[in-house]
Amino acid sequence: MMFAIINARLVDPASDYDGPGGVVVEDGIIIEAGPDIDIDACDEIIDARGRILAPALIDLRTAREPGLTPDGETMGSLAAGAARGGVGTLMLAPNARTPQDSPDSLAALVRTFSDHGVRFLAAGAATVGLAGEQMAEIGLLARCGAVMVGNGDRPIADSRVMRRVLAYSSQFDFWLASRPADAELSAGTVALESDWSARMGLPSEPAISERIAIERDASLAELSGGKLLIDRLSTEAGLDALRHVRSRDIEIAATVAVAHLTLNETDAGDLDSAFRMDPPLRSELDRRALVEAVINGEINAVVSDHRPTPFDDKGEPFALAISGTLSVETLLGAMLGLVHDGQLELIDALRVLTCGPADLLGLPQGRVTAGAPADLILIDGDIPWVVDADALASPRANCAWSGRRFQGRVLQSFVGGINIHNHDG
Predict the structure, then answer these.
(1) Known Pfam families for this protein (predicted)?
(2) Does residue 284 lie within any of the structural domains?
């Protein structure tokens, strides 16, 4: 089947194009894109009426967190939330409940990826049980479908193990996603060391923890020839360290979680557990520095860090509450908030959600060009809506943006040319 989307505001960060245009799609592939397309042979024509046509988003960090509640997240609910939020490709990262550290467990996970509409990818564990003590069977994980490795929320404290994982993972051209935190300085902390955390009496981590970790990990990557992905950079100190090490001969990239671009530590007010995150929310100065880094092209990808946490687990005091928030369905809305506030240009916001992560992993999607998969979204940037955690596709879980007013919704999502979502509002 051949169809076209016409009269759109076409935004393709991969080619730095933002202007009038459309696409022609045949058998799941874009065969024409741009301001001048031939639609004579199309079976269907969709008139965008000036709305935004962009690549479907690519989210390199999500978690399903199975088994927390009887009605918890499923692959289906995760995929539904992604489709509604314009995410066409999802990476499932290892975490404490699903470490993805054995070939059998990873193979079982990969077998669940089909028939959900969106594309799923899997990151394998860097160490057994994410304990940081023994390297996982990375070669076998690669054979079972892993496309990179990581150690979840836990930094690999042992430098010998870190060096070994970097060296071995490079044989498979894998990125090693590393949480930038000094294991000792960050142990047991739930906040950034600041005036706010001192007033609240919270165990806190100094920002220099990120700098120390990045400098160590970069040195080990330089020594081993490994590919280092700084996983959820969150402080200006860490950003300064990233700039410094990038002057050396190291293959290094960085992601930022959407929460650290759109929220800060004071959003937690008088210790609202809905804002308990890992990494913790940072200062407003840190947030602004990260937004500037997105503008400057220093951040390769923005991730949702979607981590369903049932409301009951957020009922504990802030320091005891489980960290996490629903964020895959609100990822684009939160980023569009930065656009409407004048903090980001639309093309910059979309770059770190599309071609940026695609280029990291060598994926063909994430661009609106001839020959690319027809993973596309049609956005009305003006529709206002209020986030309601109960109305999101992921069941009964916390969302840090609940009650906030967003502007802009995904009207349609396509993956491989197949329409997987139509906004019914």
Answers:
(1) Amidohydro_1 (PF01979), DHOase (PF12890)
(2) yes
